[in-house]
Structures are given as structure tokens and as C-alpha cells.
Amino acid sequence: KTSEHVSKTGYHCDKEGDSTSHGFKPGWYAFSPSIGGAMPETCPQPLYCGTSAGGWLKGSHPSVVGQSVSRTVCFSWVSNCCQYETTVEVINCGKYYVYNLPYVSGCNLAYCAREH
Predict the structure, then answer these.
(1) Residue 36: per-residue pLDDT
(2) Which are the contacts of 16, defined by CB distance < 8 A and separation ≥ 6?
(3) Are 73 and 39 in contact (CB under 8 A)?
(4) How far is CA 81 from CA 16, 17, 61, 113, in A?
(5) Is there a contact between 96 and 78 (Cβ–Cβ < 8 Å)?
(6) Are 26 and 82 in contact (CB under 8 A)?
(7) What does DSSP say about strands 97-101 and 27-30: parallel, antiparallel, or unpaired?
(8) What Rg value do the Cα atoms of the chain yield, rounded?
(9) Beta strand spans in the chain (E)
């Protein structure tokens, strides 16, 4: 799968059944360089990721190729950088990372991407 649903513009939500999810389904996603290449490790600015509550990786990406880690993804809301959270698995594939992304708990939540 690719992460074409992750956008820096427009409103997006990765919740099951939401009309703005652009077909998002839980599963493994590689963030392509055209949308940023990796999930950010710091809290994004409001609306940066095309939604009100952008998801970011709390903790670092795995540093060794082939390494898999479990991480919390936080969703920032107004002045709270971790208002909502979920758990994802991340694998270092060398030139990119892959993420096992679940549905989010509500809208306006969506996963973010940044340059790797």
C-alpha cells in the first residue's frame, strides 16, 4: 500500500467510514518521498497535515535496517500535542519506513508525513 491518503492540504480523516478518508484502510503503508517519506517525530502545527489533529510519532524511528518497533502516535489538538493516541508498528526498510496503521478513533484525526 502507499500513503496517498496522507496530505498536506485539504481536510482528511483516517477514521473508518469517513467520507474524507480517501479509501484509507488499516494496514501497512510506506510513506513515499512525494508526501514526505516519514512520519514526523515532533508535534506538527495545527492544520499542517490537512486536518485539525495531525498524527506524529512519539519516539524515534528504528535506526537499524530491518528493525521493527512499536510506537505511540499522538494526535495534536489545539494546545495539547498528545490529545489522542494510538499504537503503530514501524519497520526501517533502509531508504524508507513502513507503518502498520490502524483506523483513528475520530475525526479530525489523520496521520502526517514529513521529509525523511
Answers:
(1) 67
(2) 103
(3) yes
(4) 23, 25, 18, 16
(5) no
(6) no
(7) antiparallel
(8) 13
(9) 27-30, 37-38, 53-58, 68-77, 80-92, 97-101, 109-111, 114-115
One-letter amino acid at 70 equals S
pLDDT at 102: 93
pLDDT mean values, one per 10 residues, the chain (116 residues) = 41 54 78 78 83 90 96 91 95 91 83 74
pLDDT for 20: 47
Burial class (CB in 10 A: 0-12, 13-18, 19+), 64: exposed
Point out which residues pair with 54 in neighbouring strands.
Answer: 110
Give the residue from 9, 40, 1, 21 showing the smallest Cα distance to 104.
21
Nearest to 101 by CA among 13, 36, 26, 30: 26
